[in-house]
Design goal:
By secondary structure, this protein is an alpha/beta fold. It has a domain of about 200 residues: Rossmann fold (3-Layer(aba) Sandwich). It has 11 helices and 8 strands. Strands 1, 2, 3, 4, 5, 6, 7 and 8 form an 8-stranded mixed sheet that branches. Helix 4 links the parallel strand 1 and strand 2. Helix 2 packs parallel to helix 5 and helix 7 packs across helix 11. The protein is globular. The two termini are about 30 Å apart.
Length: about 280
Amino acid sequence: MTGQQHQTAQHGEHAAPVEAWDALAALYDEHVAPGEAEVAMAGLRLARLQPRDTFLDVAAGPGGLSLPAARLGAKVLATDWSPKMIDHFNARVSTEGLDAEGRVMDCHALDLRDDSFAVTGSLFGVMLVPDQAQALREMVRVTKPGGRVLVIAYGNPADFEALHVFISAVQAVVPDFAGPPEDEPPLEFQLADPHVLRQRLLDAGLREITVDTSNDERIAVRTGQQLWDWTIGGNPLPGMLVADLTDQQRMDIITVLDGMVRERSGGDREAVLTAPLNIGVGTK
């Protein structure tokens, strides 16, 4: 087994199954996706998306990237391997009357023709998949010559404020809570190094690559419950880490989070927690 194959196998062992993402779909749609619009717009500007462009969103979830693209006037196809995520996306498309559709599809093997889309993107999507190299090759394959590929991923986890606040609150209630493993960073942070993101886009066959590190995601919350819902609803990993806690421990953690949010906001205002971003764009 090569080093790359070993890495993929390890990642595959820790990748959440479709059912786990289905279970999160409603929480993600309500508590996470609406706050992704600012991040999405930053990426779409860098990718130079234009009205009437064909746009493919890969590992789209309920549409954190593809809904803003459709609102800009692009013709959008959103794909995700979670049927429930696509159900939520299609419901929002129907409500807003957007020129977009969602289809269930595995990003490792897109059921789409070569050279089909002006822009192909992924927001917090392919950063999570076990065989990222294959997913990126698929994104490039279906992009038109001269088109752009956009990947938005989290940067340095040490600067991910919401994650550290959440872990601190859990540890205040459960002192021996270890948090995510440090010796083998989870899939969420496989593109945390901008140089790694640049190299993977290059290896996928792109040119004229730019990796922008000037943007942060802003997570605005007023209560501990909102921060809990954002954390648990955005990814199966936090839910797995606290799966063995009792209901009372969970309530106690939310109470601690309430205090931390109030302290950070200074009272009645929203508390804003930031997470660093790497926004990579390359040309086919």
